[in-house]
Design brief:
The protein is an alpha/beta fold and about 230 residues long. The protein is built from six helices and 14 strands.
Length: about 230
């Protein structure tokens, strides 16, 4: 089983065989996640999809607390190296890194990417994580893309973590199509409700998913699920 814990916005802690990955840490500035103590979060890897502040704000603090390895595109890990982070692994689209408990493939995302100081953040991406416990797709911030069909052709995706807040990313309608493309009926929603432009009607989103034969899981902040 894969254990998934939600920390708000696009931040998830995924535990696999006693090891863990943390995606896009944006917790301390998020008023919806005010009950989360980020200094109690333990992780082996921190994976960053792109450079926007609402995906990288807590990277340094969490990486340094855990002596974790930062995984992202070359430009982002280089930027953090200049800020003192030593344990990094840079990737780019199409590349796969095999860690001791999972493999991580960096895949395309359709979005923009700049770092908090305005530096170039490279091209945005998502991740396909494969392990003995299952395979999942973390999309990052993205629009619907036909490239997602390549993921479905190459992997047996058990569940997909997809943005559903619209405005800056896909909304629920396109996210349901994305799930179809990657070949899963199970969606974990992210990137919604944090800011006014991405507030959604959760009841309507779940209803739309049911009509499409999909399951939309919207976790409460701090909630965990086994998949």
């Amino acid at each position: 089983m894969i254990e998934l814990k939600y920390f708000g916005h696009s931040t998830f802690l995924v535990e696999i065989e006693g090891k863990s990955l943390l995606f896009d840490p944006f917790i301390s500035p998020n008023s919806l996640a005010s009950d989360i103590n980020i200094d109690k979060i333990t992780t082996d890897l921190v994976l960053v999809s792109h450079g926007h502040e609402d995906h990288v704000f807590d990277v340094e603090r969490i990486v340094n607390n855990n002596d974790a390895t930062l995984v992202s595109n070359f430009e982002i890990v280089t930027w953090f190296q200049k800020r003192g982070i030593k344990n990094v692994f840079g990737m780019n689209h199409g590349g796969t890194k095999v860690f001791d408990f999972c493999s991580v493939k960096y895949v395309n995302a359709v979005h923009s990417s700049s770092l908090p100081d305005g530096s170039y953040g490279g091209n945005p991406g998502g991740y396909v994580v494969s392990s003995n416990q299952g395979t999942f797709y973390y999309a990052g911030d993205t629009a619907l893309s036909y490239d997602m069909k390549l993921i479905g052709d190459s992997f047996d995706i058990d569940f997909a973590i997809l943005p559903i807040g619209d405005n800056f990313t896909m909304g629920i309608t396109d996210a349901l199509k994305a799930a179809e493309f990657v070949g899963t009926d199970k969606i974990i929603g992210m990137h919604y409700d944090t800011f006014a432009p991405i507030e959604i009607n959760k009841k309507e989103a779940k209803s739309e998913a049911v009509k499409s034969g999909k399951e939309l899981i919207l976790l409460n902040i701090g909630e965990s699920i086994s998949l």
